[in-house]
């Protein structure tokens, strides 16, 4: 299994630019971070190259949620520019939270319309899009509510390059039954992220049975990356033993 360091969450003991080398020195071959937009893409590409790292995933900009009527298209185009500059294979298209005064049904319809447009814009370009259903406790008002909804949208769009980011932290909080999800969502799962609830720290610090879950991922034949998107309990390096212990 291939683990990517999420540089928004890991190695925060260091300034952002220094996290690339730190991740590579710790043995990571890939990195992800939600928002590259405060940085020059050429500079980011140089940091990746110098550290010998692959950029695995970025998000669409935080002010361009796909459930909104305004701003999405410009934000998506910006995300695609960064994805191409960084050679990022995956763009997480943020579904976002229902705008005030807008019904769930209307926001959901807007999400589908925007995603259909984004799927068409990005078809044949080598960048794949993923949808992440986030838990309702941390994300009140979120429009994409379940892992099954995310998979159903990917299926309905039928684009082939739109799939699911199965974040096991969110999935555990709202739904549980993770091993079934790993197996049933495999055709749609382009990316995983991991953290252990309730604290969102390293796997092994909370309630998930990680040995069985990682064994299910391995047995499923999943070949993508697993993003480490957790808040280290102490220093990042001190907490990396779970990779060998639970997923080795
Ligand atoms: O799970 C999360 O919070 C992230 O993957 C994210 O993309 C936040 O928008
Ligand atoms: Mg996530």
From TrEMBL:
Q: Which GO terms describe its molecular function?
A: isomerase activity
Q: Which Pfam families does the record associate with it?
A: AP_endonuc_2
Domain Xylose isomerase-like TIM barrel: where? 20-245
Q: Which InterPro entries match?
A: HyI-like, Sugar_Epim/Isomerase, Xyl_isomerase-like_sf, Xyl_isomerase-like_TIM-brl
Q: Which UniProt keywords apply?
A: Isomerase
SUPFAM superfamilies, from UniProt? Answer: Xylose isomerase-like
Q: Does Isomerase appear among the keywords?
A: yes
Note whether Cell inner membrane occurs among the keywords. no
Q: What is this protein called?
A: Hydroxypyruvate isomerase family protein
What organism does this protein naturally occur in?
Nonomuraea typhae
Provide the organism lineage as a comma list: Bacteria, Bacillati, Actinomycetota, Actinomycetes, Streptosporangiales
